[in-house]
Structure formats: C-alpha cells, structure tokens
Design goal:
single chain, alpha+beta, 3 domains
Length: about 200
C-alpha cells in the first residue's frame, strides 16, 4: 500500500498516511489491499468508533478534533532566509533543503543547521536544527525526536566484518526500526540506556 492509494480514499495528511501504512504493515498483513483500504476509510469517516481500538487509536485521533486552535500567533514569513550551516550537503535531498529554507524564514528563527542524514520531516527536516528566540515550536521537532546518528569504532580487523557480512547485515535489519509507532517495549529497558 502506498500514499497514492490513501490519497484516493481521502487521506490528505502526511502524518495520517504514514500512520496508516505503518499500522497496516504491523497489524494487518493478513488483509488484502482492498480490505485494508476499506478499514482505513472507515477509520477516517468514523474515528470515534476506533478511539479505543488497540491498533487503530493513534490513527483515529488524527481524524478527531482533539485540540481546538484558539490562542495562537500567526507570523508572516520573512523575505530573506536566515543563513544556516549544512553538513554533508551532497548527501541531502533538495526537498529537505527547501523545507529548511522555509523554516529559516520564520521571523523568530535565530540559527539553524542540517546534519548529513537530514531528510524531509513534518515541520522541519529530520536531522535539522532550529534555534528560535523566546519561542518553542513543537511541530518543528517532527516525529523522529529519538532519531540520531552514531559512529561506532571497533578495534577489530576488517576481515572480521567481511567474513561476517551477512550476519551483520541481518542484525542491523532485525534491530533497526523506522516509522511513527513505538515498535518494541523492551527498547526502553535496554542496558545501553543505563550506561553513563
């Protein structure tokens, strides 16, 4: 199932599309594509019916008016983009750079930066950093708040990696998670999080 399939049934929000794709992949693999789309359409049309559903509640909340937008400040974008640092620009997609340029036109933008792993996010590119003056923009964080890069240095000969290439590849595939949904409870109790 792809975003265009969801657009056809009325899903316009990128977040709702992403949630729907992840939920279907995790919990509804056994359904045919048409059945998945029918279920997703029902959630969109009657979200209240799914607000307590174990698997569909997050998606249902996207279609329910949970927060009323009352007291907010609207800012007009500046004509000029505040300059910012880009690390590894050749690795970053131009759409992520355009998204960061737009964020740096917000009048409260003070400084910004993009990391080499930056990619399009919801309010700000994932891997983008935005410092503001006396303001907090929760939407700028996007949904990869735990997303980060890491460099691991091993005191091992290169032959060890070459010899165990398949096992290492499988370990990375099985232990790396993407998407909007918390996929494993045990990540919160992992020993690496307790180390100083």
């Amino acid at each position: 199932m792809k975003g265009k399939d969801l657009r056809k049934i009325g899903y316009s929000s990128d977040r709702a599309k992403s949630l729907a794709i992840n939920i279907m992949a995790m919990y509804y693999k056994h359904l045919k594509k048409i059945e998945k789309l029918e279920l997703l359409q029902k959630v969109m049309e009657s979200p209240e019916d799914y607000k307590d559903d174990e698997n569909l509640s997050l998606l249902a909340e996207e279609f329910m008016e949970v927060v009323k937008k009352e007291n907010f400040t609207a800012y007009k974008l500046s004509d000029e983009t505040t300059s910012y640092k880009v690390f590894g620009k050749k690795f970053i997609d131009s759409s992520a750079i355009r998204q960061m340029d737009l964020a740096m036109q917000i009048p409260i933008a003070e400084k910004g930066a993009m990391m080499p792993d930056a990619h399009v996010g919801y309010g700000l590119p994932i891997g983008g950093v935005l410092a503001t003056k006396n303001e907090v923009i929760p939407y700028a964080v996007g949904l990869d708040i735990g997303c980060r890069m890491a460099l691991s240095i091993f005191d091992l000969p290169m032959t060890m990696f070459q010899k165990n290439q398949h096992q290492l590849k499988m370990a990375l595939k099985e232990e790396t998670y993407f998407g909007l949904i918390k996929t494993r409870e045990k990540l919160a109790d992992h020993e690496v999080l307790d180390r100083a």
